[in-house]
């Protein structure tokens, strides 16, 4: 089925869902973000939440996140926030989540986090009338008890999920959840320079291992003049000042012109003008692929290994490898070769856009509107 026909089908199902009352039944999200786990889970859940709000429904983020910046960003996107206390977290927030769902207008609950295993899923389904979507990355739980299972990664279809036969499985980057700023307008055609000189560095919302600092040191060694590097530091990063000092030292020594930016709400313009982006192998990869930006991927978490390797196989990225094994000289050599190879970057750009078409959020919401309540209710009671 072509992309246009799939989009038409998604819109038709969404319209049917609206007529059936989905807009009167919003979505609750149980998701966290902090300097340890990063902000990727929250950002992709927020992408789905704001799309839900855009369609006239309600969205509630139930979270232990303590970042005032992130909480304000959630509210700015039209979603409500339920903040979990330390007492709430004794059971992972399960009881408070169920209470919020029962007391609200939520027809669906979304779980996005590695700690929400089978027992948590079963407990939530037994204690609320809502249907359940679980967002997963690498099938690490022994089983899944959900109405819909979403894994947006390139290798998702190769995984063996143990779940009920009638669980709807949304697998692969066709279902990548992109935020509003990326979905707003289709990306324009890219002008690929024969020699790239604009580099974007974005290594997650937290970067607890200071991988950004390693990349900054590597960029100092790239054998190309007039490189421009923009470094994005995430909202819960604890190392912003350290990176700024390293960038300033490089500038004073006349090596590189670094620009360090903290907590950028809309990174799309910066991404769109980059010749190459150095990023962690997480959700940012789908945003970059959609914009056609060639990727140099660093694996900073175990679940990212197959993402980086898969994107390299598809011709979308260069896999720089595991962050603890990074060598600044090797990074510099690989980046220099990629920046000098215009045809390769043009091919990477085209392949990225083929992998992520920007319609994933529509497809996921269409699937949520299509689930038959009677059948799901029978399964929950069985």
Can you give keywords for this protein?
six-stranded parallel sheet; globular; alpha/beta
Give a summary of the structure in a few sentences.
By secondary structure, this protein is an alpha/beta fold. 41% of the residues lie in helices and 18% in strands. Strands 3-2-1-4-5-6-7 form a seven-stranded parallel β-sheet, sandwiched between helices. It has a six-stranded parallel β-sheet with strand order 10-9-8-11-12-13, sandwiched between helices.
Largest sheet: 7 strands, parallel
Q: What number is the mean pLDDT? A: 89
Provide the low-confidence segments as ranges.
Answer: 1-7, 9-14, 19-24, 370-382
- Number of E-type strands: 13
Reading the helices and strands in chain order gives HEHEHEHEHEEEHEHEHEHEHEHEHHHH
Instruction: Quickly count the helices.
Output: 15
> In angstroms, what separates the terminal alpha carbons?
35 Å
Helix content: 40-55%
Which class do the helix and strand fractions yield? alpha/beta
Rg, please? 21 Å
Roughly what fraction of the amino acids lie in strands? 15-25%
Strand order of the largest sheet: 3-2-1-4-5-6-7
The geometry reads as globular
Task: Give structural notes.
The chain is of the alpha/beta class and 382 residues long. 41% of the residues lie in helices and 18% in strands. It has 15 helices and 13 strands. The strands form 2 sheets. Strands 3-2-1-4-5-6-7 form a 7-stranded parallel beta sheet, with helices on both faces. Helix 2 packs across helix 14, helix 7 (211-219) crosses helix 12 (328-340) and helix 10 (284-291) packs across helix 13 (342-355). Mean pLDDT is 89; it is low at 1-7, 9-14, 19-24 and 370-382.
């Amino acid at each position: 089925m072509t992309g246009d026909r799939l989009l038409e089908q998604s819109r038709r199902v969404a319209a049917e869902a609206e007529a059936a009352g989905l807009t009167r039944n919003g979505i609750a999200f149980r998701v966290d973000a902090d300097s340890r786990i990063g902000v990727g889970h929250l950002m992709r859940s927020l992408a789905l939440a704001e799309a839900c709000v855009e369609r006239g429904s309600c969205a509630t983020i139930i979270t232990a996140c303590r970042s005032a910046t992130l909480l304000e960003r959630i509210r700015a996107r039209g979603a409500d926030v339920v903040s979990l206390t330390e007492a709430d977290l004794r059971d992972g927030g399960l009881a408070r989540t169920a209470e919020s769902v029962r007391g609200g207008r939520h027809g669906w609950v979304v779980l996005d986090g590695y700690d929400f295993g089978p027992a948590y899923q079963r407990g939530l389904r037994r204690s609320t009338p809502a249907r359940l979507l679980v967002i997963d990355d690498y099938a690490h739980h022994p089983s899944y008890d959900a109405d819909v299972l979403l894994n947006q990664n390139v290798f998702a279809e190769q995984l063996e999920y143990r779940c009920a036969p009638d669980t709807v499985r949304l697998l692969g980057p066709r279902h990548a959840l992109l935020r509003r700023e990326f979905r707003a307008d289709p990306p324009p055609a890219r002008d690929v320079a024969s020699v790239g000189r604009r580099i974007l560095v974005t290594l997650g919302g937290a970067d607890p291992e200071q991988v950004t600092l390693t990349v900054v040191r590597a960029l100092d060694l790239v054998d190309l003049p007039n490189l421009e590097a923009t470094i994005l530091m995430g909202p819960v990063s604890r190392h912003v000042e350290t990176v700024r000092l390293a960038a300033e030292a490089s500038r004073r020594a006349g090596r590189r012109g670094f620009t360090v930016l903290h907590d950028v709400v809309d990174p799309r313009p910066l991404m769109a003008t980059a010749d190459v982006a150095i990023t962690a192998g997480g959700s940012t990869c789908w945003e970059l692929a959609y914009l056609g930006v060639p990727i140099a991927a660093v694996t900073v978490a175990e679940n990212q290994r197959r993402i980086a390797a898969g994107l390299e196989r598809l011709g979308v990225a260069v896999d720089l490898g595991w962050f603890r094994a990074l060598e600044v000289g090797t990074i510099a050599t690989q980046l220099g070769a990629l920046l000098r190879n215009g045809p390769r970057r043009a091919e990477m750009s085209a392949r990225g856009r083929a992998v992520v078409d920007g319609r994933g959020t529509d497809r996921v919401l269409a699937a949520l509107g299509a689930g038959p309540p009677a059948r799901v209710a029978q399964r929950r009671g069985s």
